[in-house]
Amino acid sequence: MENKKYKIVLLSDLTDSIYNTLRSTSNLAKMINGEIEVFNVRKPSDVVKKENQLSAMRTINSEHSVTDKKLKDIIQPLAEELGLNINYSFVFGNVKNEIDSFLKLKQPDIVVIGKKKLHSIHFLGDNITDFVLKKHSGVVMIAPDRETLALNTNFSMGTINGWKSTSDFEILDHLLKNTQKPLKSFRINRKGDVQASSDISGRKMVEYVFEHNDNSIQSLPKYLTRSKIDMLLVNRQQNKLNSKSQSISSDLKKVMSKIDVTLLVGATGLA
After folding, report:
1. Could you give the CA distance from residue 162 to residue 177 in angstroms, rounded to a whole number?
2. Does the pTM exceed 0.90?
3. Which of 96, 115, 147, 174 is the most exposed place for a label (fewest CB within 10 A)?
């Protein structure tokens, strides 16, 4: 599978953070042999302020040109710099419906979304991030609004409660080639948990084990920050009420909302 091209979709809202998120996504593509498509959705109500139909159509047409130019001005220089072919598209419509349709059409291996605010209680709540995690069964990368993945650097990777998505090991293998640092494993042990293997793709791991309690959930983000983790691998867990539903545990949501690192959430149905 050495020559496989991974399809990566970056969902963008065209805020100022898109440039850094796109750089991280582009560097990910270089590491794993990926191709990128940027997809932007805007609600018509954010563009059209008048009720007159003719005026609304003119406004939409005008915004179409503005949006196209803005995306091209951001994407083209970076694509040329890194030698990547980055496609893009955009629509005006219902944000969640359009994203759902686009992901079904493109069937990407990885979906990238930006993480807007550190410590946001709605980071993994009823928003686009949570929606994408429910709709997309493949890998999801959640990138901070700063560039956290850089080429030709010995970046540090960690896991939290293991990495169970076995079919994603190919992606992980590509990433591991870019670092000589050992993987760091952070584990929250509940009473009766069985200790999992501390080996991923034959790589040594440095393990940090925390007993499950409120204090450890609060302190874990500090350990992650001190350990200078650049990318954290996160599993989804099976919903006990619905065997087909996969989500992130409430403990991990609390930890993830308080750290400013790139998160790589594993595919569903592979644990």
Report:
1. 19
2. no
3. 96
